[in-house]
Every structure is written in C-alpha cells, then in structure tokens.
Amino acid sequence: MTVDRARRQPTLRDVAHRAGVSIWTASNAFSNPHRVADATRQRVLRAAVELDYSGPHPSARTLALGRSRLVALVSDVDAARQIADPAGVLVAQGLTAACDRAGLSVVLAGASCDLPVDGHVVFRGDSALARPPAVVVDAQDDAKPCVSADSATGLRDLLDHLRERGHRRVAVLTSPALRGRTAAVERLASGVVAAVHVSGDEAGWPTRQAGNTTARRILAPEDRPTAVVALDDALALGVLEALHQMGLAAPRDVSVAGVGDIPGADLAGLTTVMVPYRPMGELAGEILAARIEGRDAPAVPALPTGLVVRASAGPPPA
Description:
The chain is an alpha/beta fold. It is about 40% helix and about 15% strand.
C-alpha cells in the first residue's frame, strides 16, 4: 500500500522541521507562546502558513499574520445586559453585517475583553475600555473615531412638538449612559423642562425597570408633570408600564415620549425620536475594518434622526 504524499496533511513535525526547531518548541509556539522567544514563534507560525498547517490552533494562519480576525463589542455593562438592550442588539446587527463583508467575526464582550481581538467597538461606554484601533458608537471621544446620531436635533423637534401641544411642565428621564442626550436637553430646556431625573440600573444603563421605578416616583398626583420625555425608549416603555399599573394612561393623564424607535415602540404607540442604531453599527464596523487594514477612514457627520409622532403624546390634561 502506497501513501499519496502529495495529499498528506502536514503535521507539527513538518512545521518544526521547516522552522528548524524541536517539536516541543513548535507545540509551545501555538499553545504556550509566552514560553517561546518572539522571533522563534514567528518563524514557527510562518512555517505553518507556508505548509498550510492549521494544527493545534485553528487560527494558525491568522496568528502568523498577527491577526485574530475578531472584533469585540464592548460597553459599560456585561454582555448579557448588552444584548438585552434592543438598541445594543441593533448596533450588534449592523456591526456583524459590516464585519461579515470584511471577513471579521464579532465577539460580544460587555465590560471586559481579554481575547486577542484586532479592534473594539465601544457602545455607550468608557472608551478607555478599548485599546486602539477602536470606534465609539453613540458617545463622543476626542481621541477615537465616533459614530453618532444627531439626537440634539431630534430632541429639539420633540420638545417643540410638546410645546406646540401646550405642555409647559415636562419631566425628563435619563441615565449616566446617555450623557450626550442629557447635555442636549439641558441646552434646549427653555421654558418646557421642569426637571431632569437620572435613572438607570446599578451600572447606570437605561432599562424598562429603571423607567418604571422612576415614573412611579415622579408621577404622584401632586405637581405631576404633563409629559415625560425619556431619553431612551427602554425607559419610556417602563414609564408606560408604570402608568398602566397606577391606573393612568398616556396621553389622557400624562404624555410620554422616548428616543430610539426601538422594536416594540410602534406597538406601544410611543412617540419617539428615531435613532438609526443599525446603520450606526454598520458604519462603525466599516470604519474599524479599514483601520485594522491600515487604511484611513474619514470622519463621518452625525447620522440624521427624525421625530415619529404616535398616540402616546397629546395635549395636556384639561
């Protein structure tokens, strides 16, 4: 019986022979790289590429090139809460679409990422979480490329809409993760916004529960606002839940509006500001892929938003 050597899969012994090292050294180059001098490890990995050896590590080819082909999506919360946030899901969908086209894979890393990734996308988080190359989404950072939405214009249109309907006492719900939107509202607060209430879970993330809890506190009968603007739809949906539980309704007793136009906002009849989360994630992926490849990516203006008027906001109660 003869062996077709032309079709035989290369082995670790072949890689070691090509690199001029022992099998033990070749094995450590893949499995325990800290035990091997960098120059030696690079020689082993280059030999693996030349022999088309995928070996003990399925990423041998990309490791040889110094690439993992992985991109991490990070934020200030853990991965479970990251994907429980509808806005985060939309960003992840757009990012994944762009990375698929670029031959990259996405890791949902939450607040920490110890994997050898090629780059980071930071969603509503501290950009210090990410080492370069990195792109920031829905936040601002002077040192890193940012993809954002023109929430200030959308909020101006929303507050103008409420003012035109007759509202003069509007409560705003926000959270630490929404710093940019909070600053925009404070700049636009002339004669309409009565108070800004900071809410959020233990990590400062906007959630339905946080909106529900805060609404129960601020919607007491005495000095009740005529409208509530939540700076994230998750908070706004929590406000609608609280109204129902309190025997109240929007807009009969209190008008409610949000920001985001996330899935479910239409079914709830929520007036909101549309934020293009999925395109933002996709654009962030395209910018990051270019930077990983060593190409310059131009700065992009804030993506447009738009006011979506639905049934939850009407004139103040008589």
